[in-house]
Amino acid sequence: MASRLGVDIGGTFTDLVVVDDATGVARVGKVLTTPKDPALAVEQGIQAVLPEASAAPGAVRAVVHGTTLATNALIERKGAKTALLTTAGFRDALEIRREGRYDMYDLFIDPPAPLVPRHLRREVSERLLADGSVLRPLDEDAARRVIAALAAEGIEALAICLLHAHANPTHERRLAELVQDLAPQIIASCSSEVVPEIREYERASTTTANVYVAPLVARYLTDLERRLSELGVPGQLYVMQSSGGIALPPLARRLPIRLVESGPAAGALAAAQAARERGEPRLLSFDMGGTTAKACVIDGGAPLVGREFEVARADRFKKGSGLPIRVPVIEMIEIGAGGGSIARVDRMGLLKVGPDSAGADPGPACYGLGGRLPTVTDADLLLGYLDADFFLGGRMRLDREAARRAVTEHVARPLGLDPTEAAWGIHRVVNENMAAAARIHGIERGRDLRQYPLFAFGGAGPVHCWQVAKVLKVPRILLPFGAGAMSAWGLLAAPLAFDFVRTGRERLERADWGAINRRFEEMEAEGRALLARAGVAPGDVRVARIGEMRYVGQGHEVECAVPAGTLSAASLCAITRSFEAAYRALYHRLPQGVPIEALNWRAMVSGPEPARGLAGRPEPAGALGRPPAARADSAEKGARRAYFAEAGGTVETPVLDRYALAPGAAFTGPVIVEERESTAVLGPGARCRVDDGLALVVEIPG
Predict the structure, then answer these.
(1) Is 115 within 8 Å of 79 (Cβ atoms)?
(2) Protein fold of 74-217
(3) What is the homologous superfamily of the domain 261-494 according to CATH?
(4) 271: nearest Cα among 258, 280, 262
(5) 130-147: pLDDT as tens digits
(6) What is the pTM of this model?
């Protein structure tokens, strides 16, 4: 039988989901990530999960993969030795940035250094005007000398970013040809291909980041394809993009910058699909793994998508303190708060948690893999939330005494607390940090999170959702079946999709509609050709058009939908209404008598979404030895003492088997609900029920 496989590499664990396309029966798997060789964990996970699912490697028709490899390379500065070729007089654009200060009152701000040091930023003699016309032709002889000099310095990657190249890519393409002739070992990227739109600094920053990670991503994908072949998996490998679409490896190798947020994007897609299936108009996606926590607002069954984000921020919550990346991305906020986040007491005697993480190597102290510092997972184990003998379904035993020693030595003793009090402090601090980050995410987008149910998943999300939900005052919590591997589910919910952009500044009342139509036709034709090569039938192709517009005189644009079909002056009213609705949603008022201009035109060309949803996909009945039942008491595995501040301390708490809970089962907290990949901890007063889609719905008192 044909099946599909989703693989999500996180900082601590690698999650896998295999789905039988005929029956919908699924199996989830989780293995420790291997940071030094991420493809090794993928191989180990596939070898473990396929036999559990009774699936033959030869039956896997598609492997969809999400990874944080590009993100980590940018943050840790572990990319290729990179140079930059730019127009004479503009090599310092990367360092000058926007000439703004992300904190005007901090005299010691230190933005991240450019990926390319100044001595490797070289100039070439050429000049284009803003309309793309040639003011000064490219001096090819001088360019050859510059390229040869860079090759002699051992450059691995070269970013080519010339002034106004988005309007005329001729000079950039010629430089790329010269690089191929003179130094074919160097990987080159042209800004006119990576981000063909206006704004010099953002274009240069994105292009350098793209080529900086390109050799690393290319080697990784080649190695992964080889390992899949050796395992006997014939299915096509797809890679998740930051925008929520999936792409084929050739595009991922050419434009690896579009993979920067691929792992977190998958989780947001899973939350969006759950919102559509449940008819939820609003949802707050809360994904807490071993290294980071992510929050994403879901409106109308779709996550918010932005066109720019930052990596390697000097200050996590201050816009402008990182490297801008101009690619489509699902908007979310990330915070260094996961199960592996390290707790410590700072020099002021304050308890801090994260953002540094123990990761998978050496991991939390309780893993017994060499970790000595206390982490969130160690605290959760001491509080009774985790079962030391049932972590990952019993495949990994936790060392409670090692956790106690770490918490006592590094937190409890310095603060004069007993280990349980110290563990509760760690648990509470990380919850407050995550709730604060989610609240900031909502405020920046004009959303009141008190109206958004919390969709909690990830290995640690269900453990912490109760306290986070109470801080945010959300109406209820939704815990999906298989929450511990939900990001891998999201990978299988993504369509094959490609995003294109063209800059074309037009005043709408006197727009050149023929030029606008040609831009859309060009983008859509390119997208349809890519989908056709991937086997998508022409009738299954979907196209979404976006215009980035503003009122004349403004410095930034608002996205609005553009009608399908041939555009003309008759389209003006529809486009104006779309822009005004988007503008009013952001600013609640409209300027009067100011003309509208468009700057960028975008097209998203995608294939059909996978047919199967998140609902009704349990593990095989009796996964842990008993059939599902609608009575909660039939699902009891036992009880253990767990700490709940609302109950005044440690109380005897029933433990339920998640796989033995059938639709209709209802119970109240405090209660712990265990499945192999995650544990839900629900406090006193929680009113819980299992719905028809096997999601655990938790109502919060008050």
Answers:
(1) yes
(2) Rossmann fold (3.40.50)
(3) conserved archaeal protein q6m145 (3.30.420.190)
(4) 280
(5) 989 999 999 999 999 999
(6) 0.83
